[in-house]
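Internal ticket - ligand job 709, magnesium ion:
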Amino acid sequence: MLHQIEGAQAIAHAVAMCRPKVVCAYPITPQTHIVEKLGEMVHAGEVENCAFINVESEMAALSVAIGSQASGVRSYTATSSQGLLYMMEAVYNASGMQLPIVMTLGNRTIGAPLNIWNDHSDAMSARDAGWLMLFAETNQEALDLHIQAFKIAETVGCPVMVCVDGFILTHAYEGVDLPTQDAVDEFLPPYNPDVRLDISNPCAMGMMVSPEYFTEVKYLAHLRQQNALKIIDQTAKQFAQKFGRESGGLVRYYGDPNADTVIVAMGSVIGTVKDVIDELNAAGGKFAILTIVSYRPLPVEEIRAALSNAKRVIVLEKAFALGRGGVLAQEVELALMPFSGEFLSVIAGIGGRPITRTLLRQFFTQETYPEKTTFLGLNHKVVDIMSRME
Amino acid sequence: MSLTVGDRLNKAEEAVQARVKRHNSLTSGHRACQGCGEALAARCALDAAYNATGGKIVVVNATGCLEVFTTPYPDNAWGVPWLHSLFGNAPAVATGAAAAFAARGDHEMRVIAQGGDGGTTDIGMGCLSGMFERNDDVLYICYNNEAYMNTGVQRSSSTPALSRTATTFPIKQYMGNDPMSGKCVPKIAMAHGIPYVATATIGDIRDFERKVVKAIHMRGARYIEVYSPCPLGWGSQPCDTVRLARLVVRCGLYPLFEAENGKISSVTKIENLIPVEDYLRPQKRFAHLFGKNADPEHIKVIQKIADANIEEYNLTGGC
Ligand SMILES: Cc1ncc(C[n+]2csc(CCOP(=O)(O)OP(=O)(O)O)c2C)c(N)n1
Ligand code: SF4
Ligand SMILES: [Mg+2]
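stdout (structure tokens):
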């Protein structure tokens, strides 16, 4: 049955149905509504045997989750932007200790300058932190990905960050299908890890590892991530079987199967891009979009397979590395090498700037591209004024 | 009264450490320096807690000497379930562990968090205060050796007045750590109104064990700070570790007390008061106060701190 609810609430319902035992909360826009709703549900007794802990910082939020997950219970927290940076030491720690925590990242840019709106800078700051990172396109997918995330995390032995565009998804009211508790219980078995803080089998977790073992530890972690590609794909298939809809997985291809131009993107912007592609293809164009759902691990083979026949690849992303350019663009370009077609990088929607159909249509249909990297919708007048003031 | 751990004559007062069948929560073979006060304190605390709970303890450790010298992979010196996460988050990790055991319906399990003074009074302060304020069910033990030892003896907010550390090195007019700096974390803990706060030393192991046992049987947030000399960082003899832990109490620089729900409930009186000089002299970290160019005024500064403690806690007077 469809429920007309806010994205944040959809996520909260999904998390609650996964029966976490510890939920940690610290406010930061645009994630806050998720933990507010979860708090309400826990306090109303709707989540069995679950502790809702109001902590004093994001560092504490993820640290509490580390402690509870290591003690053998399913644990959840959510954050955004500055909050992710504030907890970053614990982000690396959770993955290093193979703790399958699930965290929602309500994507928001990073200051300075202070800005609370959406882009993917926060997610990119954690791209090498050892977490699996999944990007949701819609509220329905955000909900579904959380249910899959617990299963993936616990199967792989690695934390999962579910990236959900701030405001665009977290604050949007959309019809979502809430699965039944029974169905979720059948899909996601109770969490029962082999290794945990346990007096019947005392072990030390988080030891100091010297150079003679460190490379091996990290190599094994890398293999686990590679193996996660299979698990993410399998889990999406199991999910589709159980719940009757496609959500998650590694990548999705949409549009002309023999497209000349393939756009690559992640998150909520996909919907807008699809609309533009539909228009252009209806008018005789040959366009398609490759959605990357799993950013970590990056499905390099799938990306190569989907793009290698394209004449032009445009990576559209909401983040960039100052002094270098698009982040996803670098990764996709590397995956494609050697690539004989044209490769373009578009930075768009940063700090919450709307990505409109008009802007996209104009860009996709340009005759030539003078620059390899384009800042979509850049206002040159403002740039001139600001640079004169500097 | 004898203060030795080996007093086996009086069974009722026998320390857990004196028992042949103590658990050895921290077993031999670890890599601490000779005479490490922290190693001694940790074993005493955890053995006492282990004994009192029938082994129902798990331990969360902050980064620091205690963590590094006990768990160089693949060796593990701990005889209890043990977790190290980061330098500044041990109280929060312990909160999570406590919440997890409660959620699992395991209400007998006790969670102990432990760290050095740097991990506790400096970088861990935010998480510690949060854990106190929520009254989370954790016993936190701070092994106070008055500096960042693991990184090579730098100043912490627990470093004493005029002490030499690698970052408060006396030179020319500069006489070492600023006497106006530092904070009293037991008092900060008390201000949170938590059920139990205590200070202890490894110079009186039965008193320390008694405090640990008392704390482990309570619920909610509990804090014990144990003074733990560090021969390497202090430039003291390994054989003087226990002696220094007694001298610091006798000169008034380290008041021993307990507080319940924010109010002092017991204070250990000083039996034979000594001048601070007797405590300072065996330690190279205070050597500059006794050298050729030393100014007696500096020792007076430290004596004043001791005198103020004696007055504040009524350390020498009647009850
Ligand atoms: C975030 C962070 N900053 C700095 C360090 C480096 N560091 C590791 S242990 C340590 C000193 C520990 O001092 P203390 O807590 O007093 O414990 P001790 O070694 O003295 O027992 C420092 C500074 C770290 N591990 N993490
Ligand atoms: S440096 Fe000090 S605290 Fe560290 S192991 Fe040596 S004696 Fe113990
Ligand atoms: Mg220290």
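Auto-summary: Chain B has one domain: 17-313. The pocket of thiamine diphosphate (ligand 1) is lined by residues A 89; B 38, 63-66, 87-88, 115-119, 143, 145, 148-151, 156 (CB under 6 Å).
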